[in-house]
Design a protein that fits this description.
Helix 3 packs across helix 5. Helix content is about 35%, strand content about 25%. The chain starts with a helix and ends with a helix. A six-stranded mixed beta sheet has the order 1-6-5-2-3-4. It is built from five helices and six strands, in the order H-H-E-H-E-E-E-H-E-E-H. With about 200 residues, it is α+β, with helices and mostly antiparallel strands. The longest helix is centred in the first third of the chain and has 34 residues.
Length: about 200
């Protein structure tokens, strides 16, 4: 038989576990449901300035339309793209499909992310599908190059935004896959790391 004074500790411990255990479990369950239930948590809508930075566009020089393209360092959005994108890497276009409705066509580019990335990725995805609609800035390039986009490599800047349908949507910019663009990206990323708090 346990002496009376010794019986107080086990009873007190059981009472504490009974009181704290369910509350701790509820908090953990709330944390899990908050992160899994809301895929848009922390994502901004694609509007305003972000539409210029992640403009769903392909630099014409990246597909050979302009041999004397501007220097990557003169691209006023390159630094911001490199510092705020979820993925900055060389990518290869593996598939090009065209969906036509009447006279309107939408291009779907299946891209594969190369390794190593040019900046630490913020998402684990290694493949993306880029949509080029008639309203997209890249539409003229996509229409001119069409299926020949398959096999092209680019330096891609990809970022997730809050979509209207309740799911994240990606927006992007494709630059030429050149040593000069890669060097400008590395410089921008290094500057961003130095200025981080």
């Amino acid at each position: 038989m346990i002496p009376r004074a010794g019986a107080v500790f086990p009873r007190l411990a059981l009472a504490l576990l009974a009181a704290v255990g369910p509350a701790a479990g509820c908090a953990a369950a709330q944390d899990r449901s908050a992160t899994h239930a809301d895929p848009l948590a922390g994502l901004l809508p694609w509007e305003g300035h972000d539409r210029d930075v992640f403009d769903d566009n392909i630099d014409p020089a990246a597909v050979g339309f302009s041999l004397d393209g501007p220097s990557p360092r003169s691209d006023r959005f390159l630094r911001e793209r490199a510092q705020t994108a979820d993925v900055v890497a060389r990518v290869r276009v593996n598939t090009v499909t065209v969906e036509s409705i009447g006279e309107q066509s939408t291009y779907h580019l299946g891209i594969q992310v190369g390794y190593p990335p040019l900046a630490t990725p913020r998402v684990p995805d290694r493949a993306f599908e880029l949509h080029i609609r008639p309203s997209s800035r890249a539409y003229g390039v996509a229409k001119a190059v069409d299926a020949r986009l398959r096999g092209f490599t680019f330096i891609a800047f990809i970022r997730r935004f809050a979509g209207e349908a309740g799911e994240p949507e990606i927006h992007w910019h494709l630059s030429p896959d050149t040593a000069e663009v890669a060097a400008a990206v590395h410089e921008a990323v290094a500057l961003g790391e130095l200025s981080a708090p």
